Amino acid sequence: MSPPESKVDVLVIGAGPAGLFAAHGLARAGVSVKIVDQRPCRVAAGQADGIQPRTIEVLQSYGLAERLLREANQMHMAAFYNPSADGGIERTGRAPDVTATTARWPFEATLHQGAIEALFMDPMREMGLEVDRPTVPTALELSEDEELLKDPQSYPVKVTVKHLDHADAQNDTEVVHAKFVLGADGAHSWVRKILGVTLDGEQTVYPVIDYIWGVVDIIPSSDFPDIRNKTAIHSPNGSCMIIPREGDKIRLYIQLSEKDVEKDIQTGRVDKSKVGPQQLMEVAKKIFKPFNIDYVGEIDWWTIYVIGQRVASQFSVKERVFIAGDACHTHSPKAGQGMNASMNDSHNLVWKLTHVLRGNAEMSLLKTYEFERRKYAQDLIDFDKQWSALFSGKPRTEDNQDGVAHEDFLKAFQTFGAFSSGIGVHYAPSAITNYTHQSLSPNQLIGTRILPHVFIRAADARPYEIQDLLPSDTKFKILVFAGNTTKPEQWKRVDNLAKEISTGEHGFLQIYNRDLFDVWTISSGKKEVVDYTDIPEILRPHWSHVLLDDTDMYARTGGGGYERYGIDPERGAVVVVRPDGYVGIVAPLEGVKGIQEYLSVFLKKSSS
Amino acid sequence: MSPPESKVDVLVIGAGPAGLFAAHGLARAGVSVKIVDQRPCRVAAGQADGIQPRTIEVLQSYGLAERLLREANQMHMAAFYNPSADGGIERTGRAPDVTATTARWPFEATLHQGAIEALFMDPMREMGLEVDRPTVPTALELSEDEELLKDPQSYPVKVTVKHLDHADAQNDTEVVHAKFVLGADGAHSWVRKILGVTLDGEQTVYPVIDYIWGVVDIIPSSDFPDIRNKTAIHSPNGSCMIIPREGDKIRLYIQLSEKDVEKDIQTGRVDKSKVGPQQLMEVAKKIFKPFNIDYVGEIDWWTIYVIGQRVASQFSVKERVFIAGDACHTHSPKAGQGMNASMNDSHNLVWKLTHVLRGNAEMSLLKTYEFERRKYAQDLIDFDKQWSALFSGKPRTEDNQDGVAHEDFLKAFQTFGAFSSGIGVHYAPSAITNYTHQSLSPNQLIGTRILPHVFIRAADARPYEIQDLLPSDTKFKILVFAGNTTKPEQWKRVDNLAKEISTGEHGFLQIYNRDLFDVWTISSGKKEVVDYTDIPEILRPHWSHVLLDDTDMYARTGGGGYERYGIDPERGAVVVVRPDGYVGIVAPLEGVKGIQEYLSVFLKKSSS
Fold this sequence. Notes:
With 608 residues, chain A is an alpha+beta fold. In chain A, strands 1, 2, 8, 9, 10, 18 and 19 form a 7-stranded mixed beta sheet that branches. Helices cover 27% and strands 25% of the residues of chain A. The first copy, chain A, has 3 domains: 5-72 and 111-202 and 310-389, FAD/NAD(P)-binding domain; 209-306 and 395-420, D-Amino Acid Oxidase, Chain A, domain 2; 438-600, Glutaredoxin (3-Layer(aba) Sandwich). At the A-B interface, strand 4 and strand 6 of A face strand 4 and strand 6 of B. Chains A, B: Pfam families: FAD_binding_3 (PF01494), Phe_hydrox_dim (PF07976). Chains A, B: This is FAD-binding domain-containing protein.
């Protein structure tokens, strides 16, 4: 009897943060998705837990940040402790935890991975999509027929999966024919291995015993005054990082020394079976002296890890099978990057897959996934190596002048801030990122996410964060910074723009599927005098789509938007925001031809 | 066969905004409640729809504002139109719709009454409480046994109710024995009538035909530039007010003249059966000239009303049967007060009933309901009379120098702002409002709601709006503004306060049920140096209960709190916030005796 067969647009293998993010995003866009995972249920405790500022913005763009922020802890303050003269530790200083000043939410959110996974699974369930589990893939075949591979509507990938809890062992396999497959199956990715994709880089060289860390999740009992801050302790007895968590919980990352762990004499590797959470707490107590650290109740979760830093040599095979998340890059957990990098891989891929599947975009668009995300992963590894070395290094003291000085540590902390927050991600020029007119918006870098800023809606003076008006709904957002429309000559430029984008040889609103675009107009005029009805109708498809660069009624928020982006408040500019919230191209009001040429590289003309 | 009998702590008659607010609040506090309503289902369209800034704060204190703000429209801007030289209208100016600058949400929210009712009914359902409908009361008996009336645990009220849709007409009545009854059954209140409570005031004198208004809810088709603002039009053809609503809807209040309506010659009253929505739109079209106003689709809802302004002579009978909302006060809808006054009546009553029922408070506490809310209702009527006259008056023109000048209208609009927003509500001295030490917090008036302000949590530098830390959970909030605790002599004062409130003859934390109080400490120290662990433990029952008067890490919010309240940042003060969010008493750090005396008037000592 042959196994049952099924067809799906995208098969996602792995239901961790990367896989769930992709499945949720694709399902939300109306793509047919199947997602399988080998675990029988979602993560209950521990694992990844840090959500960086940019990731909060991204989750918000899918309507998921409200719940995250309701459930998560927030880390605003970082504290630094170093050896004191009497052999204990003392606070050297406090500083903002997030140094990326443009972050809309200038803090890290912490919440256990299971709750993060629920953020996606609950709305997925409402859309009728459940994770098929416990289910593992057992075979994957990718067609070599080039014609088939060129057709986005073909099913060139055949994956055999096995349902592990099937009562009928005879009938526990299923053959899935997929247009695309995403391997989001973690650091030991089965998909990566079966594709023969190798990892560059290697695990940190042994036997640098300093680079072995223990992790415990506890509810602390302590007189340590920074127990609710993100605290980096460099003590004479090793380093420790405190990550406060939801409720009263905290996580401790505890550096282990040779004294603390047993090594296998042959391999130099730590014997994890001989270390337990009590032993980790004993090490923590030494590091914390003269402060007390203990816990109440049970230890929620614990682990021991060795830092490994690697990047996959490629992120896709023929743009038909992709890998994302830990399957493509692994690094140390202390910088709080893992879950963020994973989800942002999927965020980058979802809209591209969606438009290819809808017939709106060329297959070539998919090549930009590896281009953009592999570069990012390599930068991440470089950052992580430097950061880990600083953090694991011995502190500088009287007796150890080669140790890490607090000033160097703090400087690195602040320098790396833009990167580690995710805010600094800057995609290089490519088919979807055109730097030509960067000078028109010097403060809004092309290839970075649209800067958060509050504008006032012209029709009713209601303040809106612009990021909230540009959700991850797969549309390109055409932001017409119309300049000073109260001047007749500028109004004429704007009226010409309206005609050019909607008619004629560069009229991209009609050349491509109209649903691909969402048009917004932002005037530099003031709320007391501007009438939204003065804006040409093409540029205000709804009364709500005219914004002003002004404050709200009591100047509590808003204003200075043109300046923030560096756009001339008299003459304006057009900013095209990609569906993932990153700026794709900037053009002058007369630059419609350039925008059309940009779009023509990866979009297909509307058949209608 | 005698009808079934039941017992309940509080029977609420009427499930409009006042009744639902009370039933929700009581159920949330664990009080047993029954609520009946004569309507077979909740309001589907029209009716009241304006939520004032203070009401948003109150809803937030019950955790209900988030949903309201997600669903509602916001009115930030008001616009004013007056006669133009050519016989039409023109804009005279725009101004903030809300003039109460301390409002946490400085706008009015608009949402149809049915959605407001759902705000309460959905969480009520989760608590197992449904509105019993369609059900009407048919008899009410209040015991005259003084002993019984003194005992809060007795059931002195017997109400017979009839279930209107009962299949078995023989068995359609029920006798409810209640400890307390709340009549929230509207302007034609059955409860008020059966109690023999009269209304003071009278309907606006006829035949002032100007005071007849029509109302239509439409989706407009219009070139009027302020169609999404709260707009007051004084035209040569009558007055009109635009209230933008959720989605694309708006409401028009349209002044009707003698030409527009037919009057009954005998009574001078309008024959409502001879006016329809089309006729109202025809009047609106004349008022809007030279702008167009029409609608798309159907007219959602419409009505005609005559302004009536009345206050009930008493708000309770023997503090056992209360009335709230329209049952005690009616006024014109254009000032957007009705639903707000109603809900705030219930807000005032809920915590008092709860503590009497729990045995924490004396029966006398209930007298403060009428004291506080009847005074407010009278002020509301006074405001409404002046406002209605200004709004219904003819505009001042060349030919009519006695008409209402725009400057007078605007001035009244701004002067009345504090009152109409609900922010200015200021309860007079009483058993629960003690003005003695007003000089310690000159900007935080005793008897007004605690001013919203952002403080920083000491343990983790996370900013919190203080109103969110003081929910309507029936507790008294003891806010210890501890001053500059880094100075030893001030720390000593704070330490003494901690001892005094928890031990000895004034130690109210132990004299009364400990659960009545929630203690917060607010230091004037800065986040870089204050350790929450330095505050005496009595004053920090949890690590989260120590706040700082400082900005967040990027100075986007917070700071200046002592100044905002007018409290000395060196020496501090204790602010006691009532369970409804209004300040009850302020005292110096050495004033624990005074606080204990204040509490002793209405609280019962703990039996334990």
